[in-house]
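seq as requested:
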Amino acid sequence: MKSVFSLVIMMLLFSCNSKETKKEEAPQPPKVEDNGTRITFKDKAIFKLFKTETIADGSITGDLVSVGLVGATVLGSDSGSSNNIVLFENPELASNYTQLIQHQINIKQISNVNIKQRQIELARAKDLNLHGAMTGQELLNTQTALSMEMTNLSNEKAAIIEHEAMLKSAGFDPDLLRRAKKGTAYLVSDIPENQISKLKVGDICRIQFTAYPNDKFTGKIEAIADRVDFTTRMVKLRIGLDNTNNKLKVGMYANVAFGLESDNTMSVPKMAIVTVQGMNYVFIQKDDAQFERRKVEVGQQIGDRVVVFSGINKGEKVVTQGIMQLKGLSFGY
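struct tokens:
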């Protein structure tokens, strides 16, 4: 009986010791201060789960990759016309281009023929009227005919501006299209607004078409559109490339790679940046137990890195692993 009683006492003591041990091993919750800008971990084991990278400045290189679409191709005319045929992927642009050409023809007709003829008629009418061989009403009618031709000329020029604006906003220059050689293809690609400063007319790019996975193509930036899309903040580029073999068809998709380089700039891995309500943030390791949230101004992305203009300093340690856990603690979700 005494041995049983002793065993019960020992089991109770062991159970109490076990609970105390578990209580001592329970991890300490992190301390969040200053509206989430400072996070302190008392448990060093949890703190070690986060990985960091020391911030430095230097040159970075990489590819900016975007999707491109063959928006137009230039073909020769089988009817013997001196003008080439331009095929557009967008039917509206095809209509704009056709009407623009027609308005230009009308302008030449009105300027070189109609107006000159009316001016000759008016000079003759004035002479006849001066010598009493034409009434004042007949002279007025001749003047009105010239004024109508001048009005027609103004209307044609106004119509050209409308169609020209539509073509240019889509990345096409009407004058270039008229002078384009047979066997030319034009690829249109959308680029983020914040990347445009790293690209210029004449830059060479590498192109991979879905239809020809084993073929490599190169193109050259011929124009950068004058308009930024209000909704997407994208800018259109027009890329010219050789299509003498007629392999490229209007509407084909491709991946376009632009080689980018930035010198003497601070950058962080793309994964180190969190975006909340349109603002960009990183987390900086302050010491062996604390992280600090920083608002940063970022620039273009080059490869898997993002240029940072302000908010961090050379030599600091930016968190590259465990970002989502810190974001949840800092912002409360």
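The helical segments are 2-25, 44-47, 91-130, 136-169, 174-179, 323-331.
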